[in-house]
Amino acid sequence: MNAILRAVFEPGFFTSAPVRGALLAGGMAALVSGIVGTFAVLRGQSYAGHALADISVTGGSASYLVGITPLWGFAGVGVVAAAAMDLIGVQRRRGRDLATGIVRGAGLGLAALFLYWGTASTSTTGATVTVLFGSIFTITGSTAAVAAVFAAAALGIVVVLYRPLLLSSASPDLAFARGVRVRATGALCLVAIALAVSLSALTIGAILSTALLVGPAAAALRLTSRPGLAVLWSAVLGLAATWLGVLLAYDSYYWPPVHQGWPVSFFVVALVLLFYLLSQFAALRPPGVRREAASARLTAARPDEAGA
Amino acid sequence: MAERDAVITTGPGLAAGRQETLAVEGVSVRLGGRDVLHDVRFAIRAGEFVGLIGSNGAGKTTLLRVILGLQKPSAGQVRVGGAARARRHAAIGYVPQKIELDPDMPLRARDLVGLGLDGNRFGIPLPSRGRRGLVDEMLHAVGAAAFANARVGTLSGGEQQRVMIAHALISNPRLLLLDEPLANLDLRSEQEIVSLLARISKERGVAVLISAHEINPLLPIMDRVVYMAAGRAASGTTGEVVRPEVLTGLYGHHVDVIHLHGRVLVVAGRGDETAVGPRDDTHVLHADQAAPDRDCEGRR
């Protein structure tokens, strides 16, 4: 038993400070991304989330140049870009895609410039690697504290706006008729997405953060018909992918080819993909079958209502 | 013309005032330099079932949007049970023509009905027996219990209509607005939805305004009709409104009304120089859903 445990958890896994930091910060980012991501997917804003991830590269690389933690850059630029996307026009789906594409292109151009300056001035590619692929094992206490505040803000938004968000995802007209302030609700949701993306950018990297935003949520939609449960599933899957990824990255220190450890981001993204594929198999029963089963149960429970 | 004006101004409820659930008072809407609605006025009392009849482009949807507060009128006003515009949503239940939901959206019929109760509230709803009971009761009332736990996106058109009617009714509105609920339904679902709505309006005393381009399915149950063409409206009982003189004034060209086995056919008349253009056949205006709009409406 001990031998198996030791084979799975390489010695020192639970006592290593970087590992504990990674489990904590990574877990937090995964939870927030999973929960907020469910709404991004429901509202058809996966592409917006993807664009915000790309744009956050701009902020991350800029903060490197001025010497502050990339998290401020990720979040700051992300929130500004979210506001810009809302202003340009996110009411219609096509307008939304156009606005997103324009802002994204501009952001990536700036990012290329900043990363070039960073590389040129330090003669290393450290900034590029950290910004693009994350720094889950080297997150300082002060950065983690800021991350916790961002996490609380993002979660606060989706918890408070849970019902208005759900209703306006189903139909903006229906939501308006119920008295929901559809526009403001959508804008705040975009801010939550930007914050979630900035947390994942910090841990697994700006270009991979969409995977944690969209992947667990997409898998969750396959596993349940209940909106609340979908949010929970998404959070659990994101958390599992991140923690398993940290474990595998730690274990991979002795793996070929370089015996230096594989990047944790790779494992996290690979696991997210695996979970998504598994969820497709779990949901292979067509929706109609499930529906008939559900009605059969109901009919059995209430024979008087059958065929009403 | 005089005939039409007479019908409009003698529409029930206007003179009586006060007790009507919905009062539309001289509403006009100008969009892009053209009159989408022109001086539309009518009123609906509690428990009344009123059909808003007109072909595509007649202004029905714009009128519903004005009543909902989604569209500001350029003249006139709408009063809903005396509620101010900002609080109007509490008094109105709205059923849009159709909602587009992916089958994989995790939102069950009962979730959507529950959101009709408190979808505008903040926070996560705690599961409570009272809320669940209300939702179940509503699902039964509209005959949607059998698919209460199915995803809304997987339901048929008629099933979705039932769910949305439950969504709209669960907050006990005084006015129920339905935008073309019979469009795209097969004949059987159409009849089921019509009798469901008739029952609801009587049992609950809720005023119902239902838009449709086809008058016949609603004839047996309508208390009154608001007939629209080219942004103008005439209101009254079907006997008052669905007459050649009135509809001719409304359409701006000659129209005949034919009664056939308890149904009504509104047709553009032969031999009228302003009406039909190159074709001189008689065209059926409303008996057929698909064809007639372009030929007969005499639009611009």
Span from first to last CA of chain B? 18 Å
Order of helices and strands of chain B: HEEEHEEHHHEHEEEHHEEEH
Oligomer: heterodimer
**Low-confidence parts of chain A:** 296-308
Our count of domains of chain A comes out at 1
Q: How many β-strands of chain A, per DSSP?
A: 0
How many β-strand stretches of chain B?
12
General description of the model:
The complex is a heterodimer of chains A (308) and B (300). Chain A is mostly helical. Helix content of chain A is 79%, strand content 0%. Chain A has helices spanning 2-8, 17-42, 46-66, 70-89, 93-122, 126-133, 141-160, 162-170, 172-177, 182-204, 209-223, 227-251, 264-282, 287-301. In chain A, α10 crosses α11 and α12 crosses α13. The model of chain A is unreliable at 296-308 (pLDDT under 50). Chain B has 300 residues and is an alpha/beta fold. Among the domains of chain B are: 99-172, no CATH class; 245-296, no CATH class. The longest helix of chain B has 18 residues, at 187-204. Mean pLDDT of chain B is 80; it is low at 1-18 and 272-300. The A-B interface holds A 42, 159-164, 166-167, 169-171, 173-180, 220-222, 224-230, 287-288, 290-291, 294-295, 298-299, 302, 305-308 and B 68, 70, 87, 89-90, 92-94, 96, 99-101, 103-108, 111-112, 115-116, 118-125, 140, 143, 145-152, 154, 164, 167-168, 171.
Produce the secondary structure layout.
The complex is a heterodimer of chains A (about 300) and B (about 300).
Chain A: H1 2-8, H2 17-42, H3 46-66, H4 70-89, H5 93-122, H6 126-133, H7 141-160, H8 162-170, H9 172-177, H10 182-204, H11 209-223, H12 227-251, H13 264-282, H14 287-301
Helix pairs in contact in A: 2-7, 2-10, 2-11, 2-12, 3-4, 3-5, 3-6, 3-10, 3-11, 4-5, 4-10, 6-10, 7-10, 10-11, 11-12, 11-13, 12-13
Chain B: H1 2-9, E1 20-31, E2 34-45, E3 49-53, H2 60-68, E4 75-80, E5 92-95, H3 109-118, H4 129-141, H5 157-169, E6 175-178, H6 187-204, E7 207-212, E8 224-229, E9 232-236, H7 238-241, H8 244-251, E10 255-260, E11 263-268, E12 283-284, H9 293-296
Parallel strand pairs in B: 3-7, 3-8, 5-6, 6-7
Antiparallel strand pairs in B: 1-2, 1-4, 8-9, 10-11, 11-12
Helix pairs in contact in B: 1-8, 3-4, 3-5, 4-5
